[in-house]
User: Which sequence fits this backbone?
């Protein structure tokens, strides 16, 4: 047992320490702190939403109740008149129905007035708290923590910035504008000169691209059918379960489910989903290719989605050049790159001296691709693994770096884009551009364009088959709409693939992913299964070779 703690020296007898009573002034000052005022302000905001919901329910109940009573009275009056014609009883019922209608209107008016007064009172009180220095979002920070609150508040502010100007536009009007913009994009594409699939001797896809995609899919685990790489088939799940029955670990089962074969040694398989900026990962030694594979998982939880949407540009310096990166994915990369580097070092040691030149392949799909690209960029910038080739293959890589920094990664990172996949084209800037398009097409005159640039007129032009007119309209609208600052791009060299039987693969320029493309498969093109089929088609045609 430890020694007892001596009491503090005292010149007099020991007495129990009395609690210090705060003065009324100090208690008032504590209550008036920015944090407490912020909690009050946030609570009032929640109360305001509750008031709106409560009055909405009350209106529904009022309309339902009065409507039911009125329908019964009118039905009785009509039945009496059908049987005996107009009579005193039916007249009385019609009079009662009028009184019920008046009461209904008066009740509704009273509810509207009461809601307006309550709403105005809450807003006035909240404005007073703000003027007194209330710290916004304090209640959320208290509930979920500072980091998560920052992300939620930022995403909310970005959404309000994008959606605010569209508040007075009807949903059908916005859908019409999106449809028209997709028509313009396709018309402009049809008149662009074809770019050769591979202008130089460099191969289009890295060697073993399909294998790296399967590693990326394995990060989802066999319970999630390894990212549905085989579609809705249960074959992958059966492979994973068979591996588990033979004593394989969860990582080995995930690799089996994803179709990764050969001599692969799993070092770590992290599947946690609750922590912000901490995507799951799988690190393995692939003895068949002489590589340490670091695979990052794509979006699979709410916290992952917040990392995706926390997309404001954040300052970053790489190779002595200052630029910007996707905030959420950069934070994720910085959080995991240290532990992943330690695991990669273990993997390099396990490869042995006879494996030739050692290399680390960092790969991922979607969010995993973005974090993988940034991890590779950070490692290369820090010269983390001297004498070791660090390469990244990013499938459906989001927009993670500004133009200069993204291009600077081309010697070690390849980003693969299938069709009109929206994720490599999605950022705060391109979303703001699309918002601008909707505003222009719904009111072209307000932006200095003629009525022939309205969504309805453009769709009519498409129906007439006027491709030249559509391409000209696109050329007129794009410079007015696609002007948002803070533009980001997928990292490294860009390769565009199509579904089997579609256009040949080609090298993409950053301009090819600088706007959201509106098409029927802009979401489905993002699925890992589509990427697998596209990569396999290129491999069968001899388009995958060494980097």
Assistant:
């Amino acid at each position: 047992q430890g020694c007892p703690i001596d009491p503090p020296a005292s010149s007099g007898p020991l007495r129990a320490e009395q609690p210090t009573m705060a003065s009324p002034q100090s208690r008032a000052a504590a209550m008036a702190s920015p944090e407490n005022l912020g909690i009050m302000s946030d609570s009032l905001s929640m109360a305001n939403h509750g008031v709106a919901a409560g009055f909405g329910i009350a209106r529904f109940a009022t309309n339902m109740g009065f409507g039911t009573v009125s329908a019964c009275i009118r039905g009785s009056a009509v039945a009496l008149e059908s049987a005996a014609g107009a009579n005193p009883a039916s007249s009385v019922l019609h009079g009662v129905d009028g009184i019920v209608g008046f009461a209904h209107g008066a009740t509704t008016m009273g509810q509207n007035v009461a809601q307006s007064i309550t709403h105005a009172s809450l807003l006035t009180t909240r404005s007073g708290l703000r003027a007194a220095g209330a710290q916004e979002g304090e209640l959320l920070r208290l509930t979920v923590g500072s980091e998560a609150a920052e992300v939620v508040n930022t995403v909310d502010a970005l959404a309000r910035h994008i959606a605010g100007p569209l508040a007075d536009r009807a949903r059908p009007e916005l859908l019409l504008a999106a449809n028209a913009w997709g028509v313009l994009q396709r018309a402009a594409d049809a008149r662009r000169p074809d770019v050769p699939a591979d202008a130089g001797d460099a191969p289009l896809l890295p060697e073993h691209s399909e294998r790296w995609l399967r590693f990326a899919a394995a990060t989802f685990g066999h319970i999630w059918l390894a990212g549905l790489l085989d579609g809705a088939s249960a074959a992958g799940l059966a492979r994973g379960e068979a591996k588990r029955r033979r004593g394989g670990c969860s990582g080995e089962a995930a690799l089996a489910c994803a179709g990764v074969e050969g001599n692969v040694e799993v070092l770590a398989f992290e599947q946690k989903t609750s922590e912000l900026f901490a995507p799951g990962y799988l690190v393995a030694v692939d003895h068949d290719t002489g590589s340490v594979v670091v695979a990052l998982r794509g979006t699979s939880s709410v916290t992952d989605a917040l990392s995706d949407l926390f997309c404001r540009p954040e300052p970053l310096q790489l190779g002595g050049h200052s630029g910007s990166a996707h905030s959420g994915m950069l934070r994720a990369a910085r959080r995991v790159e240290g532990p992943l580097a330690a695991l990669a070092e273990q993997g390099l040691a396990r490869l042995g001296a006879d494996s030739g030149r050692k290399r680390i392949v960092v790969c991922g799909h979607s969010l995993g691709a973005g974090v993988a690209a940034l991890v590779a960029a950070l490692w290369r910038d820090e010269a983390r693994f001297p004498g070791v080739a660090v390469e990244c293959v990013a499938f459906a890589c989001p927009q993670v770096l500004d133009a200069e920094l993204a291009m600077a990664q081309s010697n070690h990172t390849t980003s693969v884009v299938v069709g009109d996949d929206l994720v490599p084209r999605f950022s705060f800037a391109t979303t703001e551009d699309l918002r601008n398009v909707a505003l222009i097409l719904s009111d072209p005159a307000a932006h200095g364009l003629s009525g022939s640039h309205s969504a309805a007129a453009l769709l009519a032009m498409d129906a007439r088959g006027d491709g030249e007119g559509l391409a000209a309209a696109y050329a007129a609208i794009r410079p007015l709409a696609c002007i948002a600052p803070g533009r980001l791009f997928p990292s490294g060299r860009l390769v565009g693939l199509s579904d089997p039987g579609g256009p040949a693969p080609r090298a993409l320029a950053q301009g090819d992913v600088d706007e959201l493309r509106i098409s029927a498969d802009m979401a489905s093109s993002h699925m890992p299964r589509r990427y697998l089929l596209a990569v396999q088609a290129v491999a069968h045609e001899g388009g995958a070779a060494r980097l």
